[in-house]
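During the reporting period the student researcher (J.K.) took over the structure-prediction task from the postdoctoral fellow and processed the backlog of single-chain submissions. One of the processed entries is reproduced below for the supervisory committee.
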Amino acid sequence: PAPGAGFGMAPAALELPEWFNEKAFLEGAQQHFVHLQQAWDKSDWADIETYTSAEVFQHLQVERSKLPEQQHSEVVSVMAELANFINNDDHVVATINFYGWMKEDSADATEFSELWHLQRDMTADNGDWIIVGLEQS
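J.K. obtained the following structure tokens:
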């Protein structure tokens, strides 16, 4: 290969606004991931609805209905990386790559990887981050 052809080239840094604290955001996201996994297991829709857009909420209800009512999962480890950040002035969208290990019921731990797309309304004072998209691989 040609010298420097893709080797040692770091991905381009995301352009983040001054107000955005990436470290605190990702630490909070990891805590919310574990919390929402527990809410998912219990089908705690009142809790889940506070975190999601109406479209994502409906999708999650359909997906959960396909699973056994009694489900227990344990997040063995979860890491979070900021995969993308889009600033559309009136709203921003942050994409988080969650990955790690999870145990479901009594099975051995398996790897997981998910992208969560979160949106924040910048026209509202202290607007909440809302999950507007989920991708599992």
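The committee noted the following: The CA atoms of residues 3 and 40 lie 49 Å apart.
J.K. will present the remaining backlog at the next meeting.
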